[in-house]
Design goal:
Radius of gyration: 12 Å
Shape: globular
CATH superfamily: Integrase, C-terminal domain superfamily, retroviral
Helix content: 10-25%
Low-confidence stretches: none
Number of strands: 6
Length: 82
């Protein structure tokens, strides 16, 4: 389920990131900014920007088969104070 619309690339949108180590998908990220086909992401756990922009092919909309632990993490991250 690739991201294809401008709305889905809006800053603050929740995404999953493809890991290159095991080629699985990691949760806990949001879009910080978009520059063409490159996307800067923010990690929820520490609110930091990832150092390298990623290609749009390496992000996707989040899946909704979350475990209770992941739902709790998402709820905590959405309450963070900026």
């Amino acid at each position: 389920m690739p991201i294809v619309t401008i709305e889905e690339l809006a800053p603050g949108a929740e995404v999953e990131v493809r890991t290159h180590y095991q080629a699985n998908w990691a949760r806990g990220f949001e879009i910080a900014s978009v520059d063409g086909d490159r996307v800067r992401l923010r990690r929820w756990s520490d609110n930091s920007l990832l150092p390298t922009p990623l290609d749009r092919a390496d992000i996707r909309r989040p899946t909704r088969d979350e475990s209770p632990w992941m739902r709790e993490l998402h709820d905590i991250a959405s309450m963070r104070i900026l």
